[in-house]
Amino acid sequence: RHQPATRSGIHGAEPRRRRWSIVADVSADKPATGRQAEPLDVDAVRTVQIGTALWAVALAATLIARDTLADHGRTWWIWTCVAGVVLGLLGLLVTTRRRSRIATSGSATQRS
Question: What's this model's pTM, rounded to 2 decimal places?
Answer without folding.
Answer: 0.61
